[in-house]
Design goal:
Elements lengths: L10 E6 L6 H10 L4 E6 L1 H14 L11 H20 L3 E3 L8 H12 L4 E3 L5 H6 L3 H10 L13 E4 L4 E4 L29 E8 L2 E2 L7 H13 L5 E7 L5 E7 L1 H17 L2 H20 L5 H13 L5 E8 L2 E8 L7 H4 L11 H26 L1
Parallel strand pairs: 1-2, 3-4
Antiparallel strand pairs: 5-6, 6-10, 7-8, 7-11, 9-10, 11-12
Helix pairs in contact: 2-3, 3-4, 7-8, 9-10
Length: about 375
């Protein structure tokens, strides 16, 4: 009732970012519920090019394990929502994210960054709403009573979010971190125990740190193939308790099959072609970017700066990586690159090359100075006691 002006003209927007969804049914459902206009936008190519690749170039992994499949999709989805809102003259946008999670932050920070005067309606934060619907169980009962089809059922009450990058599972019995995930939960990957007994061997080409495709129009179909090959071997499953930006810990289960392969391959070719000291700096930037993505700051000045630096670092990250996928694991087999910093003659145990071994003596002595001084100080302190 406090938002009565909204309901003069309700528009529905759905982003196709590679999830398995019946968009035709979604359109009919929206029209039945009173939407005056329905926008179903295919964002798959821009999602890969403008969001997934920059994250993979950065080797962005949140808290050492999460490849940010949901997090990186939110600015892509919200950006198009804002574009539609502006073009339609809408002053309000809405989303269904809960008041406890990260997605509300990611959606809304993008909206405010790109459409500063927009007003956001978040039903889960409206007292009249959350006093009536205390949680997902109440919503499921309401949907059943009113004949509204929803993918969540009392038998599988977890929250799922899927796209080209991954699928996530939260809520329901997963809220107890001790509970094992049901074996029928996973949708993208085969149980490694049931996966093929022979590996698949792949070659992945990179140019400037990006997965190279012969034609950009093939990007989505080739990604699906990569996802399929890795998924059938059970690659990319993780089960973690992570720190939400809002201040609480949550348990999440993620499947990121193709992304896991690309991360391993990119890490390998990057180490092969990038200067050691540049890579140390870049590693820190990757951690920073993962936090910015997770916390919803994709459209912030600091994130723009970090992405620019990472993009610069990728200029010589070029080459081919051979790898195999087998029983839930990715194994690097070999690599080659015209930009390699690996000098076979220099490093060889059989050829001296352009290197004088006696130089190492002075190098070692110089590096031992501070160790000797530390030992001297420790010895003096022990004598005093």
């Amino acid at each position: 009732s406090t938002h009565e002006p909204l309901f003069g003209k309700t528009l529905l927007y759905i982003a196709n970012i590679g999830q398995h969804e019946d968009f035709d049914a979604a359109r009919k459902k929206a029209e039945k519920l009173g939407a005056k206009k329905v926008f179903i936008e295919d964002l798959r190519s821009e999602f890969v090019q403008e969001f997934i690749w920059p994250a993979l170039q950065a080797n962005a992994v949140y808290e050492d394990r999460y490849l940010l499949g949901t997090s990186i999709a939110r600015p892509c989805i919200a950006r198009r929502q804002v574009q539609i809102a502006r073009s339609e003259g809408a002053q309000y946008v809405s989303h269904g994210a809960t008041g406890k999670g990260n997605d509300q932050i990611r959606f809304e920070l993008t909206c405010y960054a790109l459409y500063p005067h927009v007003q956001v309606i978040a039903p889960w934060r409206i007292p009249e709403f959350y006093s009536r619907f205390r949680g997902r169980k109440d919503l499921m009962e309401y949907a059943e009573t009113h004949g509204i089809p929803v993918p969540v059922t009392p038998r599988a009450p977890w929250s799922m979010d899927a796209n080209l990058m991954h699928i996530s599972y939260e809520s329901g019995i997963l809220e107890n971190p001790k509970n094992h995930a049901p074996s029928d939960l996973y949708q993208m990957t085969t149980n490694p125990e049931d996966s093929p007994n022979e590996p698949d061997v792949l070659e992945i080409d990179f140019a400037k740190g990006e997965r190279h495709f012969p034609q950009i129009c093939s990007i989505v179909s080739e990604l699906f193939l990569l996802w399929f090959l890795s998924g059938k071997h059970g690659v990319g499953r993780i089960d973690i308790v992570e720190n939400r930006f809002i201040g609480m810990k949550s348990r999440g289960i993620y499947e990121t099959p193709g992304g896991t392969i690309l991360l391993h391959a990119h890490l390998d070719i990057e180490t092969f072609t990038m200067d050691r000291e540049v890579r140390k700096i870049k590693q820190g930037l990757g951690i920073k970017l993962s936090e910015l993505i997770y916390n919803g700051f994709w459209y912030s000045p600091e994130c723009e700066f970090v992405r620019h630096c990472i993009d610069k670092s990728q200029e010589n990250v070029e080459g081919r990586v051979q790898l195999s996928v087998f029983k839930g694991q990715v194994y690097i087999l070999g690599r080659e690159s015209p930009k390699s910093l690996y000098n076979e003659e220099l490093v060889s145990m059989d050829v001296q090359g352009d290197y004088d071994p006696s130089d190492a003596s002075g190098f070692i002595r110089i590096n031992a100075v501070r160790l000797r001084e530390h030992n001297r100080l420790q010895g003096a302190a022990q004598k005093k006691h």
